[in-house]
Design goal:
alpha/beta; 5 helices; 30% strand; nucleic acid binding; RNA-DNA hybrid ribonuclease activity; RNase_H-like; RNaseH_domain
Length: 160
């Protein structure tokens, strides 16, 4: 659980193949573990790495747009954390995306940590939904479907 005044952003990318039809998803919760918003969107045809990075960019953009400047970001892809944390340029096709993510992270006070897949089920579910939609979908706490709400509670049970 994040500290008072902080939010936690759990995010994930999903790809049906590498490359394949891809989606991004994430969930932002407050320090009481209450959902502020959840998002998912289609990313078209993309690779696993690109989907994880695009999901991170969308998540930090949504935090920034809502003046959520103290953000704890959790991802289940260790390679993404390593790529973001190092100031390396990364592969040429990722460079523009990495620059945008780092710019947003610079403007936010935050931390980036790894979470096991079992604790990231809500973001995983949302990313898979993103593979099947046409546009960005943003849900607030009242709009969450029962199944997502159950998964959010399960995430909290495994990793409070």
């Amino acid at each position: 659980m994040p500290e008072l005044g902080w939010v936690k952003l759990n995010l994930d990318g999903a790809s049906r193949g590498n490359p394949g039809v891809s989606g991004a998803g994430g969930i932002i919760r407050d320090h009481f573990s209450q959902v502020i918003l959840a998002y998912y969107e289609s990313l078209g045809f993309s690779t696993n790495m690109m989907t994880e990075l695009q999901s991170m960019l969308r998540g930090v953009q949504l935090c920034f747009e809502r003046s959520l400047f103290h953000v704890w970001i959790e991802v289940d892809a260790m390679h993404v954390i390593q790529l973001i944390s190092k100031q390396s340029k990364g592969a040429w096709h990722l460079q523009t995306l990495l620059i945008k993510i780092r710019k947003h992270l610079f403007l936010l006070e935050g931390k980036l940590t790894h979470i096991f897949r079992e604790g990231n089920q809500a973001a995983d579910f949302l990313a898979k939904l993103g593979c099947s939609v046409d546009a960005l979908t943003i849900l607030n706490n009242d709009q969450l479907q029962h199944k997502i709400t159950s998964i959010v509670k399960l995430d909290h049970f495994y990793f409070p």
